[in-house]
TrEMBL record:
Its cofactor is a divalent metal cation. Keywords: Coiled coil, Hydrolase, Metal-binding, Nuclease, Nucleus. Residues 428-455 form a coiled coil. This is (rape) hypothetical protein. It comes from Brassica napus. Belongs to the HARBI1 family.
């Protein structure tokens, strides 16, 4: 899994604009929530605000009066001041400084009252999460995107590893719930502030802390692929023994990105949309085994894969000799990465109507290649369904947007391993969403074919072409002679 250089990332969320790890500017956007109209709580808040303003104005008036007295005495006595007069002036100046300190303290107290959300008190904090965990199971799954047992296990993991700790007002469980509520519903901090009765600064701080905690444990959630042939392949006559050496699928994922103007040209795709390109790999258990986010949307998928393979720091799980990943037509067919044939039908939408049956070995190979490799589309579809924040361009720093992709994939794997059978989303498998996403993906591939195969053929590509031809013609021969299901 690629974690990049995100350990030194900015800790603060930004409400407008973002930047990468080079151009990020630290800052705090302080905003005072507006009071809702009507009710007793807004009335109390107005009284507090009025009282705070009165305190500040009174203190400033006293400080100004002391300055005037000190200036008048200094002018009156001039250079002939006696010791007693000097003491009086020194006393006035000292009193002036004390009044300024008091004025500052009053102003800070006033700001703390105004920045608190309505209804905030020790008795109201934590009640929302408590009621949620004691309520119906469906409500907890809807809000936290996982069941209660997994939520407590995740929170306990962060506490035991020392990645998160209880504060005076916010427990670790509430910090995790804040993070899951934001990424699980793509909600803004203002909404979460009202729900948990905490200030915007507190919500932002705990969001970043939990994001860092998830990244810290994410390496344990990404495991290399199993080398044995998966049971789904063994049990299918259409796939076995042809794809017995396949260990996973690789694809490029385009996510909407929020960037400052100076960085936008690099991240525009062919349609002018700002996107970050993410290299993802998954196994046939719908688990992600590798994720590398943060690439410019204008970069081709094949170039990203080559860059990752050339960088040993990425720790990409390379396929051993004789094993391979499936890749789509945006990648070069090379040793360890088997792509479909160019110039032949590939997308499932192309095998409809009068020409349903495959016409040759290339058609048949591409069709079964697509049927097996769509596991990554199903995985991505479930990931976006569970964490809708990935469907939009969140208004955070670009480094945070990168880290969110790593964190959500790690949580996806955590839920799959701990509750893959009972989880509501994995049980459904998201087949309908995957099919819809697959058709649009087929159209995007057609636009990028012209960028492929610009390099001369290498020995590794010759080996891959030979393996692909062997599989395709064996598959076609069996299909024609035994009339197997296609």
């Amino acid at each position: 899994m690629m974690s990049g250089d995100g350990d030194d990332d900015d800790d603060e969320l930004s409400s407008g604009g973002s930047g990468d790890e080079v151009h990020v500017i630290n800052g705090h956007n302080k905003r005072i929530p507006t009071a809702p109209s009507g009710g007793s709580v807004p009335s109390r808040r107005r009284n507090r605000k009025a009282g705070g303003v009165a305190i500040v104005e009174a203190m400033l008036e006293l400080a100004a009066a002391s300055k005037m007295r000190a200036a008048a005495l200094t002018k009156k006595n001039g250079d002939n001041l006696q010791d007693s007069s000097t003491s009086s002036i020194d006393f006035d100046i000292e009193l002036d400084e004390m009044e300024l300190v008091a004025a500052a303290a009053g102003y800070l107290y006033y700001q703390s009252l105004v920045n608190q959300p309505p209804g905030t008190s020790p008795s109201t904090r934590g009640t929302y999460l408590k009621d949620l965990l004691q309520g119906p199971v469906e409500d907890c799954r809807e809000v936290l995107r996982m069941d209660k047992r997994l939520f407590h296990k995740l929170s306990d993991t962060f506490r035991e590893k020392g990645l998160l700790r209880d504060t005076i007002t916010v427990l670790v469980e509430e910090q995790v719930a804040i993070f899951l509520s934001i990424i699980g519903h793509n909600q803004r901090i203002r909404v979460i502030q009202e729900r948990f009765h905490l200030s915007c600064e507190t919500i932002s701080r705990h969001f970043n802390n939990v994001l860092k905690a998830v990244k810290a444990v994410s390496r344990g959630f990404f495991q290399p692929p199993v080398l044995e042939t998966h049971e789904d392949i063994v049990s299918s006559k259409r796939l076995y023994p042809y794809f017995k050496d396949c260990i996973g699928v690789i694809d490029g994922l385009k996510l909407l990105a929020n960037l400052p103007i100076k960085d936008q040209p690099r991240f525009q795709n062919k349609k002018g949309i700002l996107t970050q390109n993410v290299l993802v790999a998954c196994n046939f258990d719908l688990e992600f085994i590798f994720v590398c986010p943060g690439w410019e949307g204008s970069i081709n998928d094949s170039r990203i894969l080559r860059a990752v393979l050339d960088d040993p720091n990425q720790n990409f799980p390379r396929p051993p000799k004789g094993k391979y990943y499936l890749v789509d037509r945006n990648y070069t067919n090379t040793e360890g990465f088997i792509a479909p044939y160019q110039g032949a039908r590939y997308g499932l939408h192309e095998y409809r109507g009068a020409r349903q049956m495959p016409q040759n070995a290339h058609d048949l190979f591409n069709h079964r290649h697509m049927c097996l490799s769509n596991v990554i589309q199903r995985s991505v579809s479930m990931l976006k369904t569970r964490f809708p924040i990935l469907k939009s361009a969140p208004p955070y720093h670009f480094q945070v947007q990168r880290d969110l992709m790593i964190a959500t994939c790690a949580l996806h794997n955590f839920i799959k391993r701990e509750d893959g059978v009972g989880d509501w989303l994995f049980a459904a498998e998201g087949k309908e969403a995957a099919a819809a996403e697959e058709e649009s993906r087929g159209e995007e591939e057609e636009e990028e074919l012209e960028l492929l195969h610009m390099d001369s053929t290498t020995p590794r590509e010759l080996v891959a072409d030979s393996l692909r031809d062997s599989i395709a013609f064996t598959m076609w021969d069996d299909f024609m002679n035994k009339w197997e299901e296609w």
